[in-house]
């Protein structure tokens, strides 16, 4: 075989090998990513939303000066925007319930009924100077770290505040009630109780509620509990800064450890290793599963033995938006942010976050 024929033979063999390799390769199928979609029912003055609450047949959104309700009637969604008489401060995350929302400014605590939120005459203004002459100001943690007012499953509200007495802290328990007169709904305050915080501290009190009980941490000392009889007691010397509940167990997070408790009285070490963001992130329950949120990211939390597993969920389309609330309604997960309301189907909400090619 001459030199030209040899070169031609080698070239043909090479082409055959390349062709065979290409035929043997399986085509790469990229998984479709379902993005968060902005809800165009929340534009202009309704774009910035601070909280979400889900009811049986509707979902509520609390804005700067608005309350929005999306109802499901005969398989059709209807949206109603209400202009509120009270302003909500975006620096603090105020609670939202089936019956009322809350806002606090200066020395006044305002209760706004969900069923009649427009008229100021249907709400209730509670002046804390009239309740406690030593009242100085509300003591709230900044937005995103924890709810600033806790509400237990009996509807009792726990409000932390600072006094002029050595700049100490006190706690106000408020029991609101909803009354209906001639088809109009009003909020009234049925009872108020002042609880002295046992320790003197200049720090803000972070408050939580699970079942009938309240828990609080002042940034310096351990974890305190207020039970259903309104007795306050120290339940842990550990600096537990955040709490969430999963499978009937309370998980308390300190600066570097996780503790667990079945009743909120006795806390046991669960883990010595935790991500630092767990100390301040809010937690939600979606379909009975525990979800945490940091800025625009969502994480699912599960427990296997003595291990807390954290799985990041897909947030395509949401990056850069500061999440303020999360709720499930009519087959979609909704999230409120300072820059719009977004939604996605519940099935795609649980998908793992896709790896960024630039990170590989």
Residue stretches low in confidence (pLDDT < 50, at least 5 long) are 4-24
Shape: globular
How many angstroms separate the termini?
Answer: 49 Å
Rg calc:
26 Å
Instruction: Kindly estimate the percentage of residues that lie in beta strands according to DSSP.
Output: over 45%
Could you describe the largest sheet, including whether it forms a barrel?
A: 5 strands, antiparallel
Percent of residues in helices comes to under 10%
Derived from helix and strand composition plus strand pairing, the structural class reads mainly beta
E-strand count:
28
Question: What is this structure, in a nutshell?
Answer:
The chain is mostly beta strands and 360 residues long. The protein is built from 3 helices and 28 strands.
Structure overview:
The protein has 3 helices and 28 strands. It has helices at 3-24, 128-131, 346-349, and strands spanning 37-38, 49-54, 58-63, 66-73, 76-83, 100-105, 108-113, 124-127, 135-138, 150-151, 157-163, 169-181, 184-196, 206-210, 213-217, 223-226, 232-236, 242-246, 249-253, 258-261, 268-271, 283-286, 289-294, 297-304, 307-312, 323-329, 332-337, 340-345. The strands form 7 sheets. Strands 9, 10, 11, 12 and 13 form a 5-stranded antiparallel sheet that branches. Strands 1-28-27-26 form a 4-stranded antiparallel sheet. It has a 4-stranded antiparallel sheet with strand order 2-3-4-5, with no helix packed on it. The longest helix is centred in the first third of the chain and has 22 residues, at 3-24.
Topology summary:
Blueprint: H1 3-24, E1 37-38, E2 49-54, E3 58-63, E4 66-73, E5 76-83, E6 100-105, E7 108-113, E8 124-127, H2 128-131, E9 135-138, E10 150-151, E11 157-163, E12 169-181, E13 184-196, E14 206-210, E15 213-217, E16 223-226, E17 232-236, E18 242-246, E19 249-253, E20 258-261, E21 268-271, E22 283-286, E23 289-294, E24 297-304, E25 307-312, E26 323-329, E27 332-337, E28 340-345, H3 346-349
Antiparallel strand pairs: 1-28, 2-3, 3-4, 4-5, 6-7, 7-8, 9-11, 10-11, 11-12, 12-13, 14-15, 15-16, 16-17, 18-19, 19-20, 20-21, 22-23, 23-24, 24-25, 26-27, 27-28
């Amino acid at each position: 075989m001459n030199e030209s024929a040899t070169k031609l033979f080698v070239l043909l063999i090479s082409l055959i090998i390349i062709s065979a390799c290409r035929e043997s390769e399986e085509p790469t199928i990229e998984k479709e990513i379902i993005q968060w979609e902005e809800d165009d029912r929340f534009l202009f003055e309704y774009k910035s939303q601070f909280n979400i609450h889900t009811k049986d047949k509707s979902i509520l959104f609390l804005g700067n000066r608005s309350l929005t309700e999306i109802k499901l009637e005969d398989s059709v969604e209807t949206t109603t925007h209400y202009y509120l008489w009270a302003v909500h401060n975006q620096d603090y995350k105020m609670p939202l319930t089936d019956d009322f929302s809350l806002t606090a400014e200066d020395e006044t605590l305002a209760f706004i009924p969900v069923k009649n939120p427009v008229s100021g005459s249907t709400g209730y203004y509670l002046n804390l100077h009239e309740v406690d002459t030593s009242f100085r100001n509300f003591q709230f943690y900044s937005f995103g770290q924890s709810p600033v007012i806790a509400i237990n499953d009996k509807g009792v509200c726990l409000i932390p505040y600072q006094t002029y007495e050595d700049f100490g802290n006190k706690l106000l328990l408020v029991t609101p009630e909803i009354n209906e007169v001639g088809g109009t709904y009003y909020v009234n305050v049925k009872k108020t109780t002042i609880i002295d915080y046992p320790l003197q501290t200049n720090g803000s009190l972070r408050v939580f509620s699970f079942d009938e009980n309240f828990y609080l941490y002042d940034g310096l000392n351990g974890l305190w509990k207020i039970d259903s009889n309104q007795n306050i007691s120290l339940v842990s010397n550990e600096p537990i800064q955040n709490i969430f509940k999963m499978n009937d167990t309370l998980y308390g997070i300190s600066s570097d450890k996780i503790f667990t408790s079945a009743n909120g009285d006795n806390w046991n070490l669960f883990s010595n290793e935790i991500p630092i963001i767990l100390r301040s992130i809010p937690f939600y329950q979606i379909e009975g599963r525990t979800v945490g949120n940091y800025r625009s990211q969502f994480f699912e939390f599960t427990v296997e033995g003595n291990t807390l597993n954290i799985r990041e969920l897909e947030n395509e389309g949401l990056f850069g938006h500061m999440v303020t609330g999360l709720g499930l309604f009519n087959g979609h997960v909704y999230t409120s942010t300072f820059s719009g309301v977004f939604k996605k189907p519940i099935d795609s909400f649980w998908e793992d976050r896709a790896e960024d090619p630039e990170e590989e």
